[in-house]
Amino acid sequence: MAFKQLIAALSVVLSLQAAQAAVVKSKRAACSNGASVSDESCCAWFDVLDDIQQNLFNGAQCGAEAHESIRLVFHDAIAISPALEAQGQFGGGGADGSIMIFDSVETAFQANVGLDEIVQLQKPFVAKHNVTPGDFIAFAGAVAMSNCPGAPQMNFFTGRAPATQAAPDGLVPEPFDDVTKIINRVNDAGQFDELELVWMLSAHSVAASNDIDPTVQGLPFDSTPGIFDSQFFVESQLRGTLFPGSGGNQGEVESGIPGEMRLQSDSLIARDSRTACEWQSFVNNQSKLTSDFQFIFLALTQLGQNPDVMTDCSAVIPLSKPIPGNGPFSFFPAGTSIADVEQACASTPFPSLTTLPGPATSVAHIPPPPGA
Ligand SMILES: *[C@@H]1O[C@H](CO)[C@@H](O)[C@H](O)[C@H]1NC(C)=O
After folding, report:
1. Less Cβ around it within 10 Å: N or C end of the chain?
2. Does the model's pTM come out above 0.85?
3. Residues 30-60: pLDDT tens digits?
4. Catalytic choice (67, 75, 129, 365)
5. Which residues does UniProt assign to the signal peptide (predicted)?
């Protein structure tokens, strides 16, 4: 763990040095809107920003279109396998936009169920602004995150050439996969370890189910799906009840509180001895949540790419708003308490949190994006 943190710290130092080197190499430029960017080519992305904030994200909302745009980043990027390549097969291109270019192939994969809608919604912006699908998916994901209060300052680098092949099936983890399979998969994809897997799953703080089970659409994974906070890590640790009618075979076994859905894989990773303490570490620790997610999102968006030849256009991405109220904070939803926690981290007690007042309420649905 200490070694892991050292590596993370070193990576941050290295990426800072790389960023500084990139700044020295390229000339800073001022865009027509007055913004200062590291390279003139970044300026065009401000037009894309204005367009998608208005016409994709319904006025910079952290709603279903934002949630699915974030999910699209992960499902495009993680589809890369050096292990398959070592066997002489094509292992996928990572963050290369293949999920949009070969959407009829990749959105038919079971793990990508429901992503066809956001791909169809994004495609016209790619054509209109003449950018590559890989760059656009990373951009839309970073902008989507910035629409969610509490999110870190998101990075965005350009330079992804269009994918030339569809990724093979079987590389995107599924909700019914076991923990070892998922850990092995992310390790193959980007040499990520089990702690970094937990960092990735922070994205489920701003997420809802989409076509996992068509009878129960748009069920959030925590009670605050419009805020990037640690509630996902609190509520996934609560004792769950079997999801009504699910049969448990779609990977959507449990609900911690009414109206919410818990993926089987999230439930297992929250309780596995390899991952449980890292899971719990995000409770009441917004700064750890944001810094780890900022790191892992950038790493994912560079899978299969050479970061040295990419251009840092992070200055285009807006800063997110702070969490409303007196946040950042973590709480037990009304009607729940420490007694409902299924403690899984053996070395550290669960943080003591206040319970929201009032009767238990149901979490509101978030209808998936309209089919295009
Ligand atoms: C938050 O996490 C950081 C990094 O692991 C740690 O140093 C810090 O003590 C944590 N803060 C709290 C309040 O737990």
Report:
1. N
2. yes
3. 999 999 999 999 999 999 999 999 999 999 9
4. 75
5. 1-21
